[in-house]
Design goal:
The structure holds 2 protein chains of 2 kinds. By secondary structure, chain A is an alpha+beta fold. Chain A has 4 helices and 13 strands. In chain A, strand 3 and strand 4 form a beta hairpin. Chain B is an alpha+beta fold. Chain B starts with a helix and ends with a helix. Classes of the chains: A alpha+beta, B alpha+beta. At the A-B interface, strand 6 of A face strand 3, strand 6 and strand 7 of B.
Chain lengths: 244, 408
């Protein structure tokens, strides 16, 4: 029997820190992607959307459990109050109170705007899985921040060609996330600010989604209230609850 | 004198002349029939391509036809002017339309779809969708939320007439536009792009749902002669308000324009091949009759007929043959075309409709009589017989009287 060569041991020994580092990056990204969720959460947020032809503001409340259950409902304006979105695993349903119907968003419309914003249905479904679908590489490490590049795994069904996180180091909160398309052109940027301690966690209360090809448009989400680790069951995230 | 001589010469060997004549008549009549069937196919495919969706001419604001931008609507003040313009001579139909894209849903099934908001009766004057129903009925003008839907889309959604649909989209004010529709009818055009993603809905309903009250994206026109669309567009263009554009079906359906150009080329090739054969037949007849009459031409020359007159004589014979053949051939062609007009030959038992270049070719052969289908082959036949007459005429004119008389 051949003994494993010393050389192989050496390789493994040298690789260990970077393997550990990659695992660390994955954990960091995962933590950041779930910063607004915890084990479970309830929030009240305001979404302001500015587009070329209009500008509007929505107040919404949302509930989440783990990373697979999410329910959000519009509270104001009155015209759209009650419009709700339910996400369970990788499915998305919308409820339309005006016609009292639930619509399942088909795969072909996943790239479509969610509630008229610059967030897509796909963001709701897949963004939380970024730690599973991507591999990570540390681009830069300073006392103030990390810069981490995420590249999709070869078989992952994702829409981005690359995602770059700038993470503020002391609080481990995101500062800026840049999304690149498959041609490696930056197409979208999300900037986080108003970092505050809320309900025992340090989180940025405001996120600004900026489509880079449309400088005059943006979506700003502000968390007005947020509560973590509430008692909520998976049964809450049902089509029946979507309607009321 | 020369004319009556030529006429009599033709009938000296009546059987041969009649055989040649019949070849000319049959080839001309068949060619007229074939070209008229070509025209019929052309008209069918053009009608299906334009009358299934676009119309012959489309008036819209700026570059709307290039990007279908929701906000590029026609100014309301322009509409009366457009309608007045279109009131002119050969416009046969006019339909203001609003277009919206969104999600159409029934129970658990949702698909992206294009909605065309129209006044049903006006739209019927431009497109034939409401006459291509395979189930249900057309829309009434008073219908508030009726829809007719493409057959493939209806099948995927699992809907029949009477079923309810939900439409969701982002309205012009950014809000979530959504409302119910009731399926009234299901259309089938044979063109997959429309069968699996198009709905016709009331204009007022779509204006409400898209939050675009009183707005339209385009005005589609139907004209009496679709082939003259580019000229009509050019005539209307300077009369339109600033910033408003008009395009003809050739711009909207470039493949169809190419298909029609290729039809013209194949017409030409077809005619040339047929007449090459006919021309050889006429050439043969005239040569034979000139050879047979070598002695006779010699005598004519000997008694003083000049070579030029001899040449004219033989040419006259071929022209007479040509004129006779042409007139009888045209008559025959007209009879054949008349027999195959309207419904013509139904081939649906053997072949299914063929989709090509954005149009659908129904399985039938019928004729459309156009002047050029008579004129072109007739002129070509006359030209062919004239050319076929030149060689024998030249040969006859070059005969030496003494040698010719001695020939047997």
């Amino acid at each position: 029997m051949r003994r494993p060569s010393r050389f192989a041991f050496l390789i493994i020994f040298l690789l260990l820190p970077s393997l550990a580092a990659a695992a660390g990056l994955r954990g960091l990204i995962r933590k950041i992607e779930q910063q607004y969720m915890g084990l479970s959460s309830k929030t009240v947020m305001t979404m302001q959307v500015r587009a070329e032809h209009w500008e509007r503001s929505l107040t919404m409340e949302s509930w989440s459990l783990g990373r697979e259950h999410f329910l959000v409902r519009i509270l104001a304006p009155a015209k759209e109050a009650g419009v709700a979105t339910l996400k369970v695993e990788r499915n998305v349903w919308n409820y339309l109170p005006k016609v009292d119907r639930v619509i399942k968003v088909p795969p072909s419309m996943m790239g479509g705007a969610w509630m008229g914003s610059h967030i897509t249905n796909d963001d709701l479904v897949k963004a939380n899985h970024i730690d599973e679908d991507y591999t990570f590489e540390l681009l830069e490490e300073t006392p103030e921040q990390y810069r981490i590049a995420c590249l999709p795994k070869p078989d992952a069904a994702v829409i981005w060609g690359k995602v770059v996180y700038e993470i503020i180091r002391p609080q481990e909160v995101p500062g800026r996330v840049t999304y690149f398309d498959e041609k490696m052109v930056p197409v979208r940027e999300i900037v986080f600010d108003e970092v505050t301690r809320v309900a025992g966690r340090v989180i940025p209360l405001r996120m600004t989604v900026q489509p880079l090809d449309k400088p005059n448009e943006q979506t700003v989400i502000h968390y007005d209230a947020i509560d973590f680790d509430i008692s909520i069951k998976a049964a809450f995230f049902s089509l029946r609850n979507l309607k009321n | 004198m020369l004319f009556s001589l030529a006429y009599r010469n033709l009938w000296r060997n009546g059987r041969r002349s009649l055989l040649t004549l019949s070849a000319m008549i049959v080839s001309l009549a068949l060619l007229i029939l074939a070209l008229s069937i070509f025209s019929g196919m052309l008209r069918d495919i053009l009608a299906s391509a334009t009358e299934q969706y676009h119309g012959h001419l489309v008036i819209s604001e700026g570059d709307y036809q290039e990007n279908h931008d929701l906000y590029t609507t026609l100014a309301e003040t322009d509409l009366p002017l457009i309608e007045r313009l279109a009131d002119s001579d050969q416009v046969t139909g006019l339909s203001p339309r609003l277009r919206g894209y969104g999600l159409i849903s029934h129970t658990d099934n949702s698909y992206p779809a294009e909605l065309l908001g129209v006044h049903p009766s006006q739209e019927a004057g431009v497109t034939s969708l409401q006459r291509q129903l395979v189930a249900g009925s057309a829309l009434n003008d008073g219908d508030d939320r009726g829809a007719i839907i493409g057959e493939t889309l209806a099948r995927r959604l699992g809907v029949k007439p009477g079923a309810e649909l939900v439409f969701v989209t982002q309205a012009a004010d950014g809000s979530i536009g959504n409302d119910l529709l009731i399926v009234r009818g299901i259309f089938k055009t044979g063109d997959s792009a429309h069968d699996n993603g198009l709905l016709l809905v009331p204009l007022g309903w779509l204006q409400r749902t898209l939050a675009l009250p009183g707005q339209v994206h385009e005005v589609a026109l139907a004209i009496a002669d679709p082939m003259s669309a580019p000229e009509t567009a050019a005539r209307l263009r300077p009369l339109l308000p600033e910033g408003v554009s008009i395009v003809d079906w050739g711009t909207l359906l470039p493949q169809m324009r190419e298909a029609i150009a290729s039809f013209d080329v194949s017409r030409m090739i077809f005619s040339v091949i047929l007449y090459f054969a006919t021309g050889l037949g006429v050439l043969n007849t005239l040569f034979m009759s000139v050879m047979e009459r070598t002695r006779e031409f010699g005598i004519l020359m000997a008694i003083g007929l000049r070579p030029g007159r001899i040449r004219l004589l033989v040419l006259l014979e071929s022209i007479l043959l040509g004129l006779l053949g042409a007139s009888l051939g045209v008559a025959g062609g007209l009879v054949l075309c008349a027999l195959m007009r309207d419904n013509g030959l139904d081939l649906s038992a053997w072949i299914t409709p063929i989709s090509y270049a954005g149009g659908t070719l129904p399985p039938r052969l019928h004729t459309v009589l156009e002047l050029r289908n008579l004129l072109d082959p007739t002129l070509m036949l006359l030209l062919t017989t004239l050319i076929a007459g030149v060689f024998p005429a030249r040969r006859a004119a070059r005969l030496q009287p003494v040698a010719a008389i001695r020939m047997d």
